[in-house]
Design brief:
two-stranded antiparallel ribbon, single chain, 9 strands
Amino acid sequence: MGCIQRARAWLSEPHVAPFVPNFVTCLFEGYSKHQLLRDLLAGITVGIISVPFALALASATGLDPVRGLYTAIIAGFLTSLFGGSNFLVAGPTGALIVIIFNVVQKFGYDGLLCASLEAAAILFILGCFRCGRLVKYIPYPVVVGFSMGIAAALIISQIKDFFGLDIPKPTIDIVDKIGLTITYAKTINLHSTLIASFTLAVIIVLRRYSKSIPGAAIALTIVALITTIFHIPVETIESKFGAIPAHFPTFSWPNISFDLLRRTFPTAIGIALIGAIESLVAAVAVDSITGTRHRSNAQLIAQGIANLGSALFGGIPATSSLARTSVNVQMNAQTPLAGIIHALTVLGITILFAPLVSKIPLPALSAVLVFIGWNMFEFDKTKEILKGYAGEAIIMLITLIITVFVDLNTAVQTGILISIVLFLKRSSDTTSGTFLLEVEEDEPQQPQETEKRSSAWKRKLPEDIKLYEIEGPFFFAVTDLLSDVLNRFQSLPRILIVRMRSVPFIDSTGVDSLKQFSKQCQKKGVELFLAELKPSVLGSLEQSDFFKKFSKNNVLASARQAIHFSTITPACSCEESPPPKEEDRHVFVVTNNN
């Protein structure tokens, strides 16, 4: 008993807890028969649903569909065993298919394995360095844009098999695919078209009836039996790839080289990035439904381990699937054991029903992929973005177009870059500079003092003292605010106060701008004061060499202190201010604007 308590205490340590798999946590919390029954039902249901998706997604990459089953078995098992969520279910997903297809066409399966191993390493390192929360810095329009782009590319890639077109050689370029489709449109196969259409119709009807029914599995079983019994002349898994082997995936070390690793590294970054985004976005979505909290860093490490295992056992890159995970949640899964049972269910179907799986027609698999692609179009989210800020709509559309016609990595990079530029533009629009004719007195501490001091609440500035207030972040995009301040005066003031009480931060360009403005004021005989600096701004100035040339005596806690330093009587008929204390000239930290 003491050992269990010590283990629990160690697992709850701050430096250990972020990396502890949820499976381990659930075991220490206790596991009941009731939970086991729910996990069994959920895992078996998700496993049955995963089989057709795994076959279809692997087929879309141009590889043997059995590799999709191996991926669901190995990656699904490892992700649930080491992951940071109770509900995430991993396997091949539509988001990775376009990338996988491209790398297979360029470098073959060995190239894909190299990219998988590199992606596994990247994910593992991201998890170890606690980068799990960085996914929140990926702009939402970028995520929606590349998801829709992948969906469009996935649907376009299935036109050939859906209609049974006799296109001699597949191509990577989407424009070439569209051109070849038009060129060979006359070779449409009626049997393939009918099989694919029937499969898609069955899936849609069953899906509308209940989301928990394995519509794709039922549809594929029906068409496999129909094509076998009636000898319908369509291409099947067996006729194109050979029979599905009825055994556990076998271990094999990939044939890799340094040159191949170097050439596939950009693809590996894309696989890791998409894997991390899709997995963690799914985890956040599930947390909002179930009220649980996932461990993002443990999940990234699990994704790395899962992709390593998938590559070593003949699979393809994998990530957690929101579709499978949603079914898992709907079936009231309790712990990660449901995901492990899902993987074992796929293994059981592979071994026991391999002959039937081999008879599945390829047009039926293409129908499953079209269904997957269509569901990847997040129309509600798209409408929300299009109705909002125009810049976000532009980001989404540009990301979508580049994903379809160029590649995913370029799309994500471009989307993030445009997001940064638009963010800077919007941030700069919130920063302004204004000349004030009056300066506020200190705020009364007691409400009853308000009426007594109302006449002295604001003090009109003397003619030779000017107050310029900056509001908003002072960074490189807005430093021109100070460039022409002195040029606006017909006669230069003796004292110029730059109030920065509403400036949350200042960057190095802003600091340099203040330096240049201080030199400009000194050159023209204007005494410059900086007033009401926030601690963050003051700290940035102190860390630079700003105060080597600018006196700290001119940094004030309150703008009204500059009036006290003047020997000119304020030009107003309100109460006379008390003379300033000597220490007021040395107040550098804001006391009432934290």
